[in-house]
Design a protein that fits this description.
The chain is α/β, with parallel strands linked by helices. It folds into 2 domains: 216 residues, FAD/NAD(P)-binding domain; 119 residues, 2-Layer Sandwich (D-Amino Acid Oxidase, Chain A, domain 2), CATH 3.30.9.30. The chain has 12 helices and 17 strands. The strands form 4 sheets. It has a 7-stranded mixed β-sheet with strand order 5-4-13-14-15-12-16, with helices on both faces. A 5-stranded parallel β-sheet has the order 7-2-1-11-17. Strands 8-9-10 form a 3-stranded antiparallel β-sheet, with no helix packed on it. Helix 1 runs parallel beside helix 4, helix 1 runs parallel beside helix 10 and helix 2 packs parallel to helix 10. The structure holds flavin-adenine dinucleotide. Flavin-adenine dinucleotide (FAD) binds next to helix 1, strand 2, strand 3, helix 9 and helix 10. The site of flavin-adenine dinucleotide (FAD) has 32 residues, from helix 1, strand 2, strand 3, helix 9 and helix 10.
């Protein structure tokens, strides 16, 4: 039996583990995560699962029906608003929409529930490799034949393969949440609708997405230096949106306590590395890109499932086949994501979003 250590229980690592176990491949799979449990920290917003990537991975994991049972096809409704509150585009999703939404926490639960008991070791933070041993931050060791870095943006495994580091995109997101929105603020529930809304204007945007269980998740996006102070202060944040209509900035006023500042970073477009036997990366660890691709979690899961298929078919040598598949597709998506963030949070916003969305809806 080959011991496969997966560092990180995000969408990439969990999909890899699940597909390998489902194939009954001869690997003893252990997933390590620094979180102390699946609900250790808020899992963030909603993800749309695309046909051909996230949904392909879910099918390989045997979880496509379970996904559709909890997913929200109506989450594909899109509203584009001017900073004055005027509606520019309002698209209501039809039955042909192909990328239903799921809350990130629900997706994690779906994947976790499908794993053999004990596969994930919570509260174990990978620190470094010493010979064939993984060294955890409490000093304990774990011998592994194959190591997969599924440990996200600031991967500790990546430096063993590549010197690349994420770079700041110039855009910072401030994340917030509104709970019980339907009863507490029906006006804001109506503003966001069943899916998502955005109001890009002059190097900023207000973005809000409907999540499950009466929650709306919002992001105030600003093109500002990464170290701009006090963006997690409601009043300071509102000051940056003073020229927006109150009906939009009420999203920020009505938000729960607890604003989270997330500078948006990305790896260089086309990031790749020379093959290293018995070691590779999946998901954000391999190709962190701005969320404007809408593909990060989708690609992470496709990576996980492709690597599982390659390892099952070719043994650890299958890593090379996986990397050859993953490098070009993630390069294309990363190029799109870089253009997406440059165009959406731009001085002439919402010009590009208006053109892009109109064209997309025409083609659909
Ligand atoms: C604001 C925002 C919105 C987004 N929206 C979308 C969207 O709509 N659609 C989409 O497809 N993608 C979206 N993304 C991107 C998506 O969130 C990521 O691409 C995806 O989560 C990557 O999955 P992953 O498994 O590679 O990494 P992660 O989800 O980051 O998981 C990594 C895991 O590794 C663990 N870990 C880290 N370091 C260690 C360590 N040293 N030891 C042990 N464990 C460790 C972490 O605790 C974590 O559980 C969005 C991202 C952001 C920031």
């Amino acid at each position: 039996m080959t011991t496969l250590a997966v560092i990180g229980a995000g969408p990439a690592g969990l999909t890899l583990a699940r597909v390998l176990q489902r194939l009954d491949a001869p690997y003893d799979v252990v997933v390590l995560d620094r979180d102390h449990g699946p609900d250790d920290r808020p899992q963030g917003g909603t993800l749309d699962m695309h046909a051909g990537s996230g949904q392909t991975a879910l099918e390989r994991a045997g979880l496509l029906d379970a996904f559709h049972a909890v997913a929200r096809p109506e989450g594909q409704d899109v509203r584009l608003l001017a900073h004055t509150g005027e509606t520019l585009i309002s698209h209501v999703a039809g039955p042909e929409e192909v990328a239903p939404e799921i809350d990130r926490g629900d997706l994690r639960a779906l994947l976790l529930d499908a794993l053999r008991p004990g596969t994930v070791r919570w509260g174990t933070k990978f620190d470094r490799i010493d010979g064939t041993d993984l060294v955890l931050d409490d000093g304990s060791r774990l011998a592994a034949d194959v190591v997969v870095g599924a440990d996200g943006a600031w991967s500790r495994v990546r430096p063993l393969l590549s010197p690349a580091r994420p770079e700041y995109s110039g855009v910072v997101f401030v994340e917030f949440r509104l709970t019980d929105v339907d009863t507490r603020r029906p006006d804001l529930a109506a503003l966001v609708g069943r899916g998502s809304m955005s109001a890009p204007y002059a190097n900023r945007s207000l973005i809000a997405q409907r999540n499950a269980r009466g929650v709306v998740r919002g992001y105030a996006a600003l093109r500002r230096p990464a170290d701009t102070p006090d963006l997690d202060d409601r009043d300071v944040l509102l000051g940056y949106f003073a020229d927006y209509a109150d009906e939009l900035t009420d999203l920020v006023r009505a938000a729960d306590e607890g604003f989270v500042v997330r500078p948006i970073t990305a790896l260089p477009v086309g990031h790749r590395w020379e093959p290293v036997p018995g070691m590779t990366l999946v998901g954000d660890a391999a190709h962190l890109m701005s969320p404007f691709s809408g593909m990060g979690a989708n690609l992470a899961m496709l990576d996980g499932s492709d690597l599982a298929l390659a390892l099952a078919e070719h043994g650890p040598a299958g890593i090379t086949a996986y990397e050859e598949l993953m490098f070009p597709r993630s390069e294309a998506a990363a190029r799109g994501a870089a253009a997406g963030i440059a165009d959406a949070i731009a001085p002439d916003a919402p010009a590009h979003s208006l053109r892009h969305l109109s064209q997309m809806l025409q083609e659909a």
